[in-house]
Protein backbone atom coordinates (compact mmCIF):
# COMPACT_ATOMS: atom_id res chain seq x y z
CA UNK A 1 0.00 0.00 0.00
CA UNK A 2 1.31 3.41 -0.86
CA UNK A 3 1.49 6.56 1.20
CA UNK A 4 1.25 10.23 0.39
CA UNK A 5 5.03 10.46 0.84
CA UNK A 6 5.55 8.77 -2.54
CA UNK A 7 7.92 10.54 -4.82
CA UNK A 8 6.24 12.46 -7.58
CA UNK A 9 7.61 13.92 -10.77
CA UNK A 10 5.42 17.03 -10.41
CA UNK A 11 6.38 17.47 -6.74
CA UNK A 12 10.06 17.23 -7.63
CA UNK A 13 9.71 19.93 -10.30
CA UNK A 14 7.89 22.24 -7.88
CA UNK A 15 10.49 21.60 -5.16
CA UNK A 16 13.31 22.29 -7.62
CA UNK A 17 11.73 25.58 -8.69
CA UNK A 18 11.17 26.58 -5.05
CA UNK A 19 14.80 25.79 -4.26
CA UNK A 20 16.02 27.79 -7.25
CA UNK A 21 13.98 30.83 -6.17
CA UNK A 22 15.26 30.56 -2.59
CA UNK A 23 18.83 30.17 -3.85
CA UNK A 24 18.46 33.24 -6.11
CA UNK A 25 16.89 35.22 -3.26
CA UNK A 26 19.87 34.31 -1.09
CA UNK A 27 22.25 35.46 -3.82
CA UNK A 28 20.49 38.80 -4.21
CA UNK A 29 20.26 39.46 -0.47
CA UNK A 30 23.66 37.99 0.32
CA UNK A 31 22.14 35.37 2.65
CA UNK A 32 24.33 32.27 2.52
CA UNK A 33 21.75 30.47 4.67
CA UNK A 34 19.02 30.98 2.03
CA UNK A 35 21.46 29.96 -0.71
CA UNK A 36 22.36 26.75 1.14
CA UNK A 37 18.73 25.91 1.91
CA UNK A 38 17.75 26.59 -1.71
CA UNK A 39 20.53 24.36 -3.00
CA UNK A 40 19.53 21.64 -0.54
CA UNK A 41 15.92 21.80 -1.82
CA UNK A 42 17.16 21.52 -5.40
CA UNK A 43 19.35 18.51 -4.53
CA UNK A 44 16.44 16.82 -2.76
CA UNK A 45 14.19 17.54 -5.75
CA UNK A 46 16.73 15.94 -8.10
CA UNK A 47 16.76 12.81 -5.94
CA UNK A 48 12.92 12.79 -5.81
CA UNK A 49 12.75 13.07 -9.59
CA UNK A 50 15.15 10.16 -10.06
CA UNK A 51 13.16 8.05 -7.59
CA UNK A 52 9.87 8.91 -9.29
CA UNK A 53 11.25 7.52 -12.54
CA UNK A 54 12.67 4.32 -11.01
CA UNK A 55 11.27 1.06 -12.37
CA UNK A 56 12.36 -2.52 -12.52
CA UNK A 57 11.36 -4.23 -15.76
CA UNK A 58 11.16 -7.99 -15.70
CA UNK A 59 9.79 -10.50 -18.17
CA UNK A 60 6.04 -9.90 -18.15
CA UNK A 61 5.93 -7.37 -15.28
CA UNK A 62 7.08 -3.98 -14.04
CA UNK A 63 7.76 -2.86 -10.46
CA UNK A 64 8.18 0.77 -9.43
CA UNK A 65 9.49 2.84 -6.56
CA UNK A 66 5.92 3.28 -5.31
CA UNK A 67 5.78 -0.44 -4.54
CA UNK A 68 3.29 -1.21 -7.31
CA UNK A 69 3.85 -4.29 -9.46
CA UNK A 70 1.90 -4.61 -12.70
CA UNK A 71 1.57 -7.33 -15.29
CA UNK A 72 2.28 -6.51 -18.93
CA UNK A 73 -0.46 -6.63 -21.56
CA UNK A 74 -0.56 -10.23 -22.90
CA UNK A 75 0.14 -8.96 -26.43
CA UNK A 76 3.58 -7.81 -25.32
CA UNK A 77 4.60 -11.26 -24.12
CA UNK A 78 3.01 -13.11 -27.05
CA UNK A 79 4.52 -10.65 -29.51
CA UNK A 80 7.99 -11.12 -28.06
CA UNK A 81 7.57 -14.89 -28.25
CA UNK A 82 6.45 -14.70 -31.90
CA UNK A 83 9.44 -12.54 -32.77
CA UNK A 84 11.81 -15.05 -31.18
CA UNK A 85 10.22 -18.06 -32.91
CA UNK A 86 10.02 -16.15 -36.20
CA UNK A 87 13.71 -15.22 -36.02
CA UNK A 88 14.62 -18.85 -35.29
CA UNK A 89 12.59 -20.07 -38.27
CA UNK A 90 14.17 -17.42 -40.48
CA UNK A 91 17.65 -18.46 -39.33
CA UNK A 92 17.05 -22.19 -39.81
CA UNK A 93 15.41 -21.55 -43.19
CA UNK A 94 18.41 -19.51 -44.30
CA UNK A 95 20.82 -22.11 -42.99
CA UNK A 96 19.08 -25.03 -44.71
CA UNK A 97 18.02 -23.18 -47.85
CA UNK A 98 14.31 -23.67 -47.10
CA UNK A 99 12.94 -20.43 -48.51
CA UNK A 100 9.36 -21.18 -47.37
CA UNK A 101 10.52 -21.63 -43.75
CA UNK A 102 12.60 -18.46 -44.01
CA UNK A 103 9.63 -16.49 -45.39
CA UNK A 104 7.27 -17.91 -42.73
CA UNK A 105 9.76 -16.89 -40.05
CA UNK A 106 10.02 -13.38 -41.47
CA UNK A 107 6.18 -13.08 -41.43
CA UNK A 108 5.91 -14.42 -37.87
CA UNK A 109 8.65 -12.06 -36.71
CA UNK A 110 6.85 -9.05 -38.23
CA UNK A 111 3.49 -10.14 -36.78
CA UNK A 112 5.19 -10.46 -33.40
CA UNK A 113 6.59 -6.93 -33.67
CA UNK A 114 3.14 -5.55 -34.42
CA UNK A 115 1.57 -7.58 -31.62
CA UNK A 116 4.17 -6.40 -29.10
CA UNK A 117 3.74 -2.77 -30.22
CA UNK A 118 -0.04 -3.09 -29.75
CA UNK A 119 0.51 -4.35 -26.21
CA UNK A 120 2.93 -1.51 -25.47
CA UNK A 121 0.39 1.06 -26.68
CA UNK A 122 -2.36 -0.60 -24.60
CA UNK A 123 -0.16 -0.50 -21.50
CA UNK A 124 0.98 3.08 -22.10
CA UNK A 125 -2.52 4.45 -22.71
CA UNK A 126 -4.02 2.41 -19.88
CA UNK A 127 -1.27 3.57 -17.54
CA UNK A 128 -1.80 7.23 -18.38
CA UNK A 129 -5.56 6.80 -17.94
CA UNK A 130 -5.12 5.15 -14.53
CA UNK A 131 -2.72 7.87 -13.42
CA UNK A 132 -5.15 10.65 -14.37
CA UNK A 133 -8.18 8.87 -12.88
CA UNK A 134 -6.23 8.09 -9.72
CA UNK A 135 -4.96 11.65 -9.33
CA UNK A 136 -8.38 13.25 -9.89
CA UNK A 137 -10.16 10.69 -7.72
CA UNK A 138 -7.61 11.04 -4.93
CA UNK A 139 -8.01 14.82 -5.00
CA UNK A 140 -11.79 14.69 -4.71
CA UNK A 141 -11.62 11.95 -2.05
CA UNK A 142 -9.19 14.15 -0.10
CA UNK A 143 -11.53 17.13 -0.33
CA UNK A 144 -14.47 15.06 0.91
CA UNK A 145 -12.34 13.41 3.60
CA UNK A 146 -12.89 9.86 2.31
CA UNK A 147 -9.58 8.29 3.38
CA UNK A 148 -10.49 4.82 2.06
CA UNK A 149 -11.28 6.11 -1.43
CA UNK A 150 -8.20 8.33 -1.32
CA UNK A 151 -5.97 5.32 -0.63
CA UNK A 152 -7.69 3.32 -3.37
CA UNK A 153 -7.20 6.10 -5.92
CA UNK A 154 -3.55 6.46 -4.86
CA UNK A 155 -3.05 2.76 -5.56
CA UNK A 156 -4.72 3.17 -8.98
CA UNK A 157 -2.39 6.09 -9.75
CA UNK A 158 0.66 4.10 -8.65
CA UNK A 159 -0.31 1.06 -10.74
CA UNK A 160 -0.93 3.31 -13.76
CA UNK A 161 2.43 5.00 -13.31
CA UNK A 162 4.15 1.62 -13.07
CA UNK A 163 2.41 0.30 -16.19
CA UNK A 164 3.22 3.48 -18.13
CA UNK A 165 6.89 3.47 -17.07
CA UNK A 166 7.24 -0.21 -18.03
CA UNK A 167 5.85 0.46 -21.51
CA UNK A 168 8.07 3.54 -21.88
CA UNK A 169 11.15 1.56 -20.92
CA UNK A 170 10.42 -1.13 -23.53
CA UNK A 171 9.60 1.43 -26.23
CA UNK A 172 12.83 3.36 -25.60
CA UNK A 173 14.88 0.15 -25.49
CA UNK A 174 13.44 -0.99 -28.84
CA UNK A 175 13.99 2.44 -30.42
CA UNK A 176 17.60 2.51 -29.19
CA UNK A 177 18.24 -0.97 -30.60
CA UNK A 178 16.72 -0.05 -33.98
CA UNK A 179 18.72 3.18 -34.05
CA UNK A 180 21.92 1.25 -33.35
CA UNK A 181 21.16 -1.22 -36.15
CA UNK A 182 20.42 1.58 -38.63
CA UNK A 183 23.70 3.37 -37.73
CA UNK A 184 25.62 0.15 -38.36
CA UNK A 185 24.04 -0.27 -41.78
Described by strand count, sense and barrel closure, the largest sheet is: 3 strands, antiparallel
Rg, alpha carbons: 23 Å
Strand composition percent: 5-15%
Q: Name the shape in a single word.
A: elongated
Instruction: Output the strand order for the largest sheet.
Output: 1-2-3
Query: What is the percent of helical residues?
Result: over 70%
Number of helices: 5
Q: Report how far apart the termini are.
A: 48 Å
Mean pLDDT: 86
* Helix and strand sequence: HHEEEHHH
The structure class reads: mainly alpha
* Count of distinct strands: 3
Task: Provide the low-confidence segments as ranges.
Answer: 1-5
Please describe what this structure looks like.
This protein is mainly alpha-helical. The protein is built from 5 helices and 3 strands. A 3-stranded antiparallel β-sheet has the order 1-2-3, covered by helices on one side. Strand 2 (61-64) and strand 3 form a beta hairpin. The protein is elongated.
Write out key terms for the chains shown.
5 helices, 81% helix, 185 residues, 3-stranded antiparallel sheet, disordered N terminus, single chain, 6% strand, mainly alpha, elongated
Q: How is this structure best summarized?
A:
It contains 5 helices and 3 strands; from the N terminus they run H-H-E-E-E-H-H-H. With 185 residues, the protein is mostly helical.
